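Batch job 17 of 40 flagged for manual review because the log was empty.
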Amino acid sequence: MVKILVLTDSVSLPRKYKEGSVSFEKTYTYRLQEMYRGAAVFFFFQMGGATITDLYKQINYCKAFQPDILLLQVGIVDCAPRAFSRLEMRLIRKWRLLRFTKFLTGFLRRYRGICYTSKLNFESHIGKFSTALDVKQFYSISIIPASDEYERILPNISKNIYEYNDILKNRTEFIDISEVLLAGGVIEDHHHINEIGHQIIFNMVSDRLKEWIN
């Protein structure tokens, strides 16, 4: 039986939202599990707000599963331009300075454009996954392209998404889900997906997995 490891950030998770709520049964991960029940066994680790570093911290559990296939969906948390680093945010919260910094956030995000994970570190972790797991196939799901409105909110997000997707494309078997945006599969926060988005990803991923599952 084929063993499939699925590591994702919050994009794959069910969620309640004003518009575009997705039940657990409508997520692409649940549907993959149901489609291949009896033919493949899945190990899911899905973490809200996860960077690629956060997911890699689970590597010892992942190795114990001994997967044949790795499916990775990560990147938007890593590449989004921010006003402050994670360390700076921890200190700001510790010292209760949030109310003083919120007025500077937009300005600093535009001119600092800090990413939680550098491109070099992002690519390094892709290599670490490949080395540690030695899977037969390493799939990655692309970061969804930014809408024009998302670019206005987060200047340079489109450029960052393109560059981090390029790393995934060069280092893994890349599954391009850019049509999710064009099909109206993204909810109003500009990076999580509705049922349309989950349906599209399910179709694309299941087509790839058919190559490995009899």
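Reviewer: the log was empty due to a logging misconfiguration, but the result itself is present. The mean pLDDT is 91. Unflagging and moving on to job 18.
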